Amino acid sequence: MKGNIIKYAQDNVDTDVIIPGQYLKVHDYAELATHTMEGLDPDFHSKVKEGDFILSGKNFGCGSSREHAPIALSHSGIKAVLALSFARIFYRNSVDGAFLLPIEIEQDAYDGISEGDEITIDVTSNEIKNITKNQIYQMKPFSEIIGKIIAAGGLFKYKPDQD
Amino acid sequence: MGKTLFEKIWESHIIVEKENRPSLIYIDRHLVHEVTSPQAFDGLRMNNRKVRRPDLTIATMDHNVPTTDRSLSILDKTSSVQIQTLEKNCKDFGIKLFDINSPNQGIVHVIGPQLGITLPGTTIVCGDSHTSTHGAFGALALGIGTSDVEHVLASQTMWLEKPTPFEIRVEGKRKNPHAVTAKDIVLSIIKNIGTGGGTGTVIEYRGEGITDLSMEQRMTICNMSIEAGARAGLIAPDEKTFDYLRDREYTPKNYEDLVNSWRSHLKTDNDAKFEKQFTLHIDDIAPQVSWGTNPGMTCDVTESIPSPDEFSKGDSNQKKGAEKALDYMALEPGTAIEDIKINRVFIGSCTNARLEDLIEASKVIKGQKISSNVQAMVVPGSQMVKKQAEEMGLDKIFIDANFEWRESGCSMCLGMNPDILSPGERCASTSNRNFEGRQGTGGRTHLVSPVMAAAAAIKGHFVDVRRMDLS
Questions:
Q1: CB A154 to CB B36 under 8 A?
Q2: What's the predicted TM-score (pTM) here?
Q3: Interface ipTM above 0.90
């Protein structure tokens, strides 16, 4: 996977800023996507491109259990969120619907990757390559099951009996 | 080696367990509301699936119901559609629904315990992060997203990696339990362990400071477990728990037999091991007021706003977060909390809108008027709470003080219905989240207890309720 970084250099990006409560009534995902990150970055919708990645700090996605958060990010074109850590419900929701890859990174990647950098993510070698800066970082590997659910395309497509 | 209460509940619900894999666990109760369920029901229809156990599934509408006169139609069309969708889904799939006109309607985490649906030793899920509230009864209660809602509707099970047990001991006795409340205890805990302090864990709250609490106060504690990032929070059931649930509308018929069994085994063994531990001493804790944009950004009412350097203790992201929070909140370091003026007061939410909360808040305002600069509202947690409060005359106390007395729902906790802050408005709120825009775009939220919110309504600024007569 290859894409450009949108960086939020902060901890605790919560689900209320990812998709504010007033939009939880919106069922059209294309419309929902126009409000993604509205609480934190009103320019997000105009700058995000298909295939972009978000980079942020600790406890990304904390707060509400709204699955609208990974859905809104996904329908905005975001393919992965790279963060120092994730709130568990957000992480689980991202995987359940295979909306996006929640990738846990180490401090070196957080510090080294900047807004706009072009990176590639290889989930088999667990390597993140910063093409812009010609640097390589390791991501924390997915647990086996998470990798399989994502590869299958979500919880309802994954068949545990076939393992 | 002994087992923790969480491990005992976990083990009694495992259907499939394999090494290094999530376990498939059985779900005893599934609570459903209008916001996180529509896509789940759509998913069932698309796959020709039924709800496996409609008898264990209970629905209500709380997140975007209006809190004004219910005889009028709902003006917000999208809210109206979401509410009608839940009605249709419950009808089509045979699920018991407490609709907007039901005397049992209310916030899902208030009505579950009130109706005797929440029981010790059970597993409970709901598409709502504050499901942790039900842990106050010794249940393993988990907030889930919509895909998992669909999974539970279809199978009455869910896959879960086993969380780790985290012991939080609350020791000592509060000197003034009317002024220093369960809300102040849980905000103190989050202030200390941080918003990610409980990530991946199930917290068990223990110690004298917890067993002293009433059931409604214990719910306030467990409710905010998610604000520390925990998967769930729970408290071992005791006689207070059993008394609370006796003779409720849905209390099981064999209740006394169940109580006998719960009494003997729903507790952590003396030699059980927790993977994490934290102790809070509460003898001298003060009422708490959040100043920032997450619940960990909280201080004593007697303190001043910390500088980002003081708050962050050398962590650059924490420092940046504090700077951003102060900017959003329009606050300066060094400002005394008691000097912060407010324009709005919200007494409500699944954290603090139960009868005891309203009784305690009413003592603060009885015979007084709110400040002329303040608009204040009480949104009871359920229609039953509202009715009980009205039978006690609490509505009159609030209305006489110029509070608005509303119908039940989530209301201004999350700004999905018309009850929102305007940009720049500052609110003393008994809810659980002070995130940017949570109560309305540009709104500024300070999390406090019901008595602190009531006192702020009267004075127009925060005030240490320990100085007021609450007897």
A1: no
A2: 0.97
A3: yes
